[in-house]
Design brief:
Layout lengths: L7 H8 L5 E5 L5 E6 L3 E6 L4 E7 L26 E2 L24 E8 L3 E9 L2 H4 L7 E8 L3 E8 L6 E3 L1 E3 L2 E3 L7 E3 L5 E4 L5 E4 L11 E6 L5 E5 L4 E8 L3 E6 L1 H7 L11 E8 L5 E3 L4 E12 L1
Antiparallel strand pairs: 1-2, 2-3, 3-4, 5-11, 6-7, 7-8, 8-9, 9-22, 10-21, 11-20, 12-20, 13-17, 14-15, 14-16, 16-19, 17-18, 18-22, 19-20
The chain binds 6-O-phosphono-beta-D-tagatofuranose.
């Protein structure tokens, strides 16, 4: 029995937890899970299994969500953590294919909701390859997604290859972080790392021995890195720590004003308030999965005061 197409009442009967987990009709009427405990709160839409909000007790909200975002089944939500799968960016072989793959615009099934140790809430979702996905990507697959909400936010993609052939795919947890002003923040952890600069023809460069700072549109794919990234935001008096496992690419992105104006689902003046740090596997760091094997890609997000 899947959760797809089930009513909000039925979802609450099956997966709701008093004083912790409730389903409601979110923006655009899309089914949404609201997690609210003394430790933290979060919102997750079944559309794309999309985490749109996370805030731990004693801290400000962590994720950016555009006020102009679409909330309908045909479009991705702009902000939070879109799941990019099974390709990242433009699909070179299919120019009319959806940017960043299909996972973020498919309805995911809820498979479990439970409270765990330390007042955490664990939510599990599943996306299984079907006729609709095979139209874009001719492979069977089972893609699990586990969200753990507590004093940290942990998101884990578990890709299982249930076919007889090797699978190769790209993926990203494309997280948008809320910041005071992109011109006043810095991202530490990528020092001396090779990256491909999508703002400069995709050419290969090397990060200097210093943090990433922002003085214009920034769109970089850092490769062969498993490093933890620390987003320092002095005006907000906080550090956001993005630790990861099962990921060898990290994307750093801010559209700046010109690209923001060109995006209909992103406010012209929203660009100073966000930075994407994306836990990914892209290009030569794509995932190659043998039959019967599983690959997990995990982002663990925490906040500390500066
Ligand atoms: O991750 C950075 C990026 O690839 C940018 O090039 C920009 O396209 C961004 O993703 C947003 O993609 P979207 O499909 O959400 O507009």
């Amino acid at each position: 029995m899947t959760s797809e197409g089930q009513s909000i009442d039925t979802l609450n009967e099956r997966f709701g937890i008093v004083d912790a987990v409730a389903f409601d009709a979110g923006r655009g009427g899309l089914p949404r899970i609201v997690v609210a405990t003394p430790v933290a709160e979060a919102h997750v839409y079944l559309h794309g299994a999309h985490v749109t909000h996370y805030q731990s007790a004693g801290h400000e909200s962590v994720l950016f969500l555009s006020q102009q975002s679409s909330f309908n089944s045909g479009r991705p939500i702009r902000g939070g953590t879109p799941i990019c799968f099974p390709w990242f960016g433009v699909n070179e072989n299919m120019p009319d294919a959806p940017l960043h793959g299909f996972a973020r615009t498919r309805p995911w099934q809820v498979t479990s909701a439970r409270c765990t140790d330390g007042g955490k809430v664990e939510l599990k979702f599943m996306l299984i390859g079907d006729e609709g996905t095979r139209a874009w990507w001719p492979h069977g697959f089972q893609l699990g997604f586990t969200v753990t909400v507590g004093d940290e936010l942990t998101m884990s993609l578990e890709l299982h290859n249930d076919t007889q052939t090797e699978l190769s795919c790209e993926q990203a947890l494309h997280t948008y972080f809320m910041v005071s002003d992109v011109r006043k923040v810095s991202v530490h952890g990528l020092e001396n790392t090779t990256f491909f600069d999508k703002v400069d023809g995709g050419i290969r460069k090397r990060q200097p021995n210093g943090p990433v700072t922002f003085a214009g549109e920034t769109d970089r794919v850092y490769q062969d890195t498993e490093a933890q990234c620390v987003l320092e935001d002095p005006p907000m008096g906080r550090r956001i720590i993005n630790s990861k496992s099962g990921s060898r690419s990290t994307v750093v992105w801010n559209p700046w004003w010109k690209k923001s104006v060109a995006m209909g689902d992103f406010g012209d003046d929203e660009w100073p308030g966000m930075v994407c740090i994306e836990t990914a596997n892209i290009g030569h760091c794509a995932v190659a999965l043998k039959p019967g094997h599983t690959h997990s890609t995990t982002a663990r997000i925490s906040v500390e005061k500066m």
